[in-house]
Amino acid sequence: GAIPQTATELNELAAAGGQLGISQENIIDFTEVMAQMGSATNLVGEEGAATLARFMNVMGTSQGEIRNIGSAIVDLGNHSATTESEIAEMALRMGKYGSSVRMSAADVLGYSAALSSLGIEAQMGGSAIGRTWLSIETAVASGGEGLTKFAKYSGKSAEEFKEQWNTDSSGAFNGLLKGLQSAENLTVALDDLGINNTQDIQAMMALVNGYDLVTESVNRSNTAYKENTALQEEFDRKAETTASQLSVTKNNIVEAARSIGETMLPSIKDMCPGVSMILHFTPFQIIDVVEARTV
């Protein structure tokens, strides 16, 4: 979308965030990040806002880290053969499994970008890798032959693999992918590990064969998440290539903040009680927050 986004569009983003449980102290941040994502990437509008809010919900990510997530997605989008919206779609599907095996949001985004770049579609890929993570989790928990096999293909003892999986699941999974590279027959090896659903085989083969891309992608995602600068930099670059500058966008965010206080929330608070919390902010308090952040 063009920069700047209108007050109406910003209102819609804020409303989408509120309906998805973004709290009052994070709604301005969320709106600003989604506005920048909409300007700098193809993850746009209410649909984009919904995808990111749901991803944070399934991962249990702190709402204060919305910009970190945006930065990781932008950096991955810039360095992968895929788009930001595809990365986010895949991550949303993978996220619910990822959180249950202690993967971080940055890890999940990294795997999603790699899988998507390797030509695997979001609706199958995210769930396929997620199911594999759950079967590793089950094998580790039960400690039987399953654990022995995952450890063997990773080139570790059962005890070593278990210890690493419980403390660094991403590292353990990458070790398994690397180990599987030297399997004589990958299909036979995967079958031996109990990975025999066609979609799961396809997704795992893509990751094993694309191992270097996978580790690079997961590392890149973690770095971008920590540095937390990629979204702002990309947005500034896009802002410079258009006639409008940041100050115009700032005015629109301020304008949106006014109407958030005045018009939007009363109309949606009946639909979604959680949103009414933001009504504790006056429009001018919201403007103060925005101005402090955008000056």
Describe the structure.
With 295 residues, the protein is mainly α. The chain is 75% helix and 0% strand. It has 16 helices and no strands. Helix 7 (122-142) crosses helix 12 (198-209). The two termini are 23 Å apart.
Structural class: mainly alpha
Distance between the termini: 23 Å
Question: Which consecutive residue ranges, at least 5 long each, have pLDDT under 50?
Answer: 263-270, 272-295
Helix content: over 70%
Order of helices and strands: HHHHHHHHHHHHHHHH
Oligomer kind: single chain
Our estimate of the beta-strand percent is under 5%
Shape: elongated
Largest sheet: none
Overall mean pLDDT stands at 85
Number of strands: 0
Tally of DSSP helical segments: 16
Backbone CA Rg: 21 Å
Q: Would you kindly provide a brief summary of this structure?
A:
The protein is mainly alpha-helical and 295 residues long. It is 75% helix and 0% strand.
Itemize the secondary structure elements and their pairings:
Layout: H1 7-19, H2 27-40, H3 45-59, H4 66-78, H5 84-100, H6 105-117, H7 122-142, H8 145-154, H9 158-167, H10 169-181, H11 186-192, H12 198-209, H13 211-227, H14 230-240, H15 246-269, H16 283-294
Helix pairs in contact: 1-2, 1-3, 1-15, 2-4, 2-14, 3-5, 4-6, 4-13, 4-14, 5-6, 5-7, 6-13, 7-8, 7-12, 8-9, 8-10, 9-10, 10-12, 12-13, 15-16
